[in-house]
């Protein structure tokens, strides 16, 4: 197995076709195909499924690719340290629930390590997809929250995927509302006071269970519910419909807008926000830099 073969596999996975990957790598298609076949034979796995419609990653190929990314990142660090080069194009990916502080930390990471070439990704996505991304090492870090309601269920899933949760900070639940909302002047808001207003939450797809919700689950029944996929839509609806959502209370005016405020929510238990990593992986230099940036925004 060589680093070159790992780069080949990564390029094929990213492009989805042998033809495009070969063009990007400046090699012939037969040479690329043979290199991948030799790697599969050596490692005794099938990395790509071949069909008449093209190629797709196999299940064991997804796992292999996660490890390959880590090996290439470590090789880049060695080149950076001992050869005096920049180690080539930096690659890094995180998956997160919809938190402004996660975006801010990502910006800081790029400002520090975004040299002439880099390939960084941030995925604001559904909770179960975050877990899958880290489980398959598509993402090095995933950001989620625990509370007394979801901890047992989420921990069981993390354990089955060889993942670990690392707590970053404890947050008091807050209501996110428009600055012009009728309850905006309250120092504390109760669930009873929110009853007549629409409740906004992030849709969780096939895994739309309360346990995967990004918002605090409450025993208090909400009569008006609206589910969305992205943060911008949610905040627009908060303003347009006098809606509300429940989150950590960490708010950023640059990302969330000056028209959104956070007010403490009464009678709800704490949120424990943290990150998940794979037990078989290592947190790279880029990952550690990102985590340090996160702590700055959460401090």
TrEMBL record:
<protein>
    <submittedName>
        <fullName>LysR family transcriptional regulator</fullName>
    </submittedName>
</protein>
<dbReference type="Pfam" id="PF00126">
    <property type="entry name" value="HTH_1"/>
</dbReference>
<dbReference type="InterPro" id="IPR036390">
    <property type="entry name" value="WH_DNA-bd_sf"/>
</dbReference>
<dbReference type="InterPro" id="IPR005119">
    <property type="entry name" value="LysR_subst-bd"/>
</dbReference>
<dbReference type="Pfam" id="PF03466">
    <property type="entry name" value="LysR_substrate"/>
</dbReference>
<comment type="similarity">
    <text>Belongs to the LysR transcriptional regulatory family.</text>
</comment>
<feature type="domain" description="HTH lysR-type">
    <location>
        <begin position="1"/>
        <end position="58"/>
    </location>
</feature>
<keyword id="KW-0805">Transcription regulation</keyword>
<dbReference type="InterPro" id="IPR000847">
    <property type="entry name" value="LysR_HTH_N"/>
</dbReference>
<dbReference type="InterPro" id="IPR036388">
    <property type="entry name" value="WH-like_DNA-bd_sf"/>
</dbReference>
<keyword id="KW-0238">DNA-binding</keyword>
<keyword id="KW-0804">Transcription</keyword>
